[in-house]
């Protein structure tokens, strides 16, 4: 029996509600839908820290941010815990990584355990990007999503027959600044993209912490994102709604055009596997490092624990074991990926990657139940020092029925960073009565018992994963990385400029 191959395709900031297999109202993704049609659509996969670098470190190591140390985009990977790629490589797999790495590109933070790799420095560019490989840096001509796919196809073709392999295909798209390929520029004409139902959320019941985030389309989306200035007649508080609608069409047009290239290129990769006779025995995963607000609640970006940001799309095709057209509603987090991928490759993570905090969900892929599978996901966001987005420190728990979030009011320890500090606040959402999370019921007496039970579950999960609850400014926290006061000053100027131009 040949060993199973793994192709892990991950885009950057691609929300599930911009995939037609998930019922998108805004676009069609026929090639991503092929993975769902021929395999499994997973409906409750959540990230444990909704931002780029932390999610990547969590996926590689099977651990929470406080264990692997990558708590923010300013922190680089230092391999204080090993990765599932290390294990696969030690077990005879050929391994490769192409595209957005975003865990540092110098010295010890470079990709490790890969036979072949070629990555963007930092966020990378969409057009004619610089790329780094073991030989050094060079400019690669073309569009990023095509380039990454070309590298993936070429590498598959170089493998020997029956050589088991694991390949990570990490798209830069559709991350800011959403630069589409010229061949997709005709799609999604102005005015044709429907606005979400929660677009004009007035935040009436929300915490102060959430009301203060700098992620609004109205006031925080600037000329760098839109590639044009807000016209004079749409500026000012009284033009807020008209300005939002105008910006939304530009934002979503560019975002969805970027996704169109991903969809095309996933189709190329799937076709290639079929032509090479590799489809049957290869697990193909499509996911994104986290979700994204597509105008939901009037926002763009991610970070918060609302579902559009928290949910990772996850489509998996593996004809040898996954029945076509199946779905799973089990609650899974990105901490579970490493153990699962090792299991699929015939390796027991509890033995070979004992530092992993995750658990293999492979039986779920076969349609089996796991009796004592977790019924909640624990989440923690650490990047509250970021002056651009001003997203608050928080942790919380999400079950199938409810979500409890604690904004614990941590101060900011970085000179020059945003100084928003709050009293601790709670939010509670009833996901059946209020699936779009519009009504915070944390202080509703009818839900007092629910809140108490969830607070208990939150503490239980925090203890299970060895995370420390916040008890004041002296509470230990992961190091934040090599930040620089001058950079913070520049970022704050950027925010002030963007907000002033609205
Ligand atoms: Ca991301």
From TrEMBL:
<dbReference type="InterPro" id="IPR000917">
    <property type="entry name" value="Sulfatase_N"/>
</dbReference>
<keyword id="KW-0325">Glycoprotein</keyword>
<dbReference type="Pfam" id="PF00884">
    <property type="entry name" value="Sulfatase"/>
</dbReference>
<keyword id="KW-0732">Signal</keyword>
<dbReference type="InterPro" id="IPR017850">
    <property type="entry name" value="Alkaline_phosphatase_core_sf"/>
</dbReference>
<comment type="similarity">
    <text>Belongs to the sulfatase family.</text>
</comment>
<protein>
    <submittedName>
        <fullName>Sulfatase</fullName>
    </submittedName>
</protein>
<keyword id="KW-0378">Hydrolase</keyword>
<feature type="domain" description="Sulfatase N-terminal">
    <location>
        <begin position="5"/>
        <end position="347"/>
    </location>
</feature>
<dbReference type="InterPro" id="IPR024607">
    <property type="entry name" value="Sulfatase_CS"/>
</dbReference>
